Amino acid sequence: MDVERYKAGERASLVGIFGNLSLAAMKFVAGVYSGSMALVADALDSFSDVLSSLITWIGIKISYKPADESHPYGHYDAEAIAGLIVSLMLALLAYEFAKHAVVRLFHAPEQVKLVALLAVGVNLMGKAFLAGYTKKVAEKINSPALAASAANFRVDIYTSLAILAGIGASRLGLYALDPLVALGITLLIFKVAVDISWRNIQRLMGTVPSPEMVEEIKRLTREVEGVIDVHRVRVHAMGAYNKVDLHVCVDENIPLKKAHEIAHEVQVKITENMPEVASALVHVEPFDEHHRRMHFSKKE
């Protein structure tokens, strides 16, 4: 278990929770005082981000529970499930945001106080920090849950820009600009939600991360002395990690003990050189006439 990875993910989740909670409280007070319905709505969105970060934190925490009889391969998929939940929340947010924009399009608001502009400016800086920090940690530890949260924070930046435009338009009497821009951003939110959902669904279905990963596994395996051929390489995604199983051919005349040592060396070679691989199951086969016909005749 990578303790440093767990600590980094937990820390990023907690920063998201407390950061969003602070921004939400600030926007709610400023929205009520200034008379900005959009800012109050954005504050409610930030409260939902707190829930999103909390779900991410729970997902990461569960994913690091050790394997047990019911979950022999561990609980890594908890992160992908958390990412999927966050994406569904993002889609729901887009729906609510679209409804709010349509209502405002036909019911022009009154001019809002300038304090709303200050609140949105502070929120923009806060969201930019949260998005950048969370994305950096997500890429470093390959966390699907944190990647979903980072995407959510980036969407919040565009939402704030739309609100900023709406407040500015309100000061100029152009009340229709805010809801029109908001509707455009709603489409972006939907796209981000669909992209995140699809990535996490692919992980939960065990889709191979990339053909390049399979080729790298084959390359590392062939470097192990005693391996004549490698085939039937299968990669199964488990949250932020992957489970690998593969077949290797060795000399049919070597002792069983030697064949076992080669298999163990292959396991070590893969897991030590590919941090994203949690385990490697190696099936050893004798390189006999059958395997010569099956694998080498095809290459020729």
Keywords:
mainly alpha, Alpha-lytic protease prodomain-like, Alpha-Beta Plaits, 2 domains, 71% helix, elongated
Topology diagram in text:
Blueprint lengths: L2 H32 L2 H27 L13 H30 L8 H27 L2 H29 L4 H28 L6 H12 L6 E10 L2 E10 L5 H18 L3 E10 L2 H11 L1
Parallel strand pairs: 2-3
Antiparallel strand pairs: 1-2
Structural class: mainly alpha
Question: So how many helices?
Answer: 9
| Arithmetic mean pLDDT | 78
Instruction: Write the element-wise H/E pattern from the N-terminal end onward.
Output: HHHHHHHEEHEH
Q: What do we call the CATH topology of the largest domain?
A: Alpha-lytic protease prodomain-like
Strand content: 5-15%
Distance between the termini: 43 Å
- Give the number of DSSP strands: 3
Percentage of residues in helical conformation: over 70%
CATH superfamily of the largest domain: Cation efflux protein transmembrane domain
CATH C-level class of the largest domain is Mainly Alpha
Count of discrete structural domains: 2
Low-confidence segments: none
Major sheet summary line? 3 strands, mixed
